[in-house]
Write a structure and sequence with these properties.
Spore Coat Polysaccharide Biosynthesis Protein SpsA, Chain A; 8 strands; eight-stranded mixed β-sheet; single chain; 247 residues
Length: 247
């Protein structure tokens, strides 16, 4: 039996949520569950209604992306967790390709390349994104990836598939970080020396649009990043040094 994958879709007033759900339902992978976590929305819930027979719908008071993800993870029955933002989309073979890669590399967490699309779903040219060809050279080993992570966040959260065991071992998303809960998790895993496997295939469409939170809360996000760098960079740097010594 293949391992089950739980797709968690945090939802807050997002007009694209139906497209995210359709992309999850279109997965070729044989064993999935789809959990939509409504984080206190006041708009666009009607876009979810047609898909209720095929999803698990969880409602909660507004608490932010990390709290919505954690609520979904706690209810998930899958062996692996995949996060899908309500404004993004998976390609149909996304989970099939990624679970095969994790199995091949004996890894518990992995991320992939991705496309950037606009509010209409049109593919955009996005120079200098972390997963450009020149940058992906840094993702071939853990020490190279960790070194890159000391300055940048190359991991798009919606490309990640992560075994539930890692949440049990290292904890859920930190809800005190409202905008950078993803970076906090990746740095936490790097500090622990967890292997994060990169698959250089564009398996997710990341939507860049005027209403997205990362554009509207940039200053607050930058303040959180500064806190994370102070907390984790020395620990990650020490981890890199120990890995280089062991070679």
């Amino acid at each position: 039996m293949p391992p089950r994958v739980s797709i968690i879709i945090p939802f807050y007033n997002c007009a694209y949520v139906d497209q995210a759900i359709v992309s999850a339902l279109s997965q070729t992978y044989p064993d999935i569950e789809i959990i939509v976590v409504d984080d206190g929305s006041t708009r666009h819930q009607e876009r979810i209604t047609p898909y209720m027979p095929w999803i698990h719908y969880l409602g909660k008071a507004n608490g932010g992306t990390a709290s919505a993800l954690n609520h979904g993870i706690r209810q998930a029955t899958g062996d692996y967790i995949a996060w899908l933002s309500s404004d993004d989309r998976f390609y149909p073979h996304k989970l099939t390709a990624q679970i095969a890669e994790l199995s091949l590399k004996n890894a518990l967490v992995g991320f992939t390349n991705y496309e950037v699309v606009d509010e209409h779903g049109r593919v955009m040219h996005a120079p200098n994104f972390p997963t450009d060809a020149g940058n992906t050279l840094h993702f071939t080993t853990s020490s190279k990836l960790y070194t890159y992570m000391l300055q940048y966040n190359p991991i798009n959260g919606c490309t990640v598939v992560m075994h539930k065991e890692l949440f049990r071992r290292y904890g859920l998303f930190d809800e005190t970080f409202k905008y950078t809960q993803d970076l906090e998790m990746w740095l936490r895993l790097a500090a622990a020396g967890v292997q994060m496997e990169f698959l250089n295939e564009k398996l997710t469409q990341y939507r860049f649009h005027p209403a997205m939170g990362s554009r509207n809360h940039q200053q607050a996000a930058e303040q959180e990043v500064a806190v994370l760098r102070a907390r984790y960079n020395p620990v990650v740097a020490a981890r890199i040094a120990s890995m280089e010594t062991e070679k």
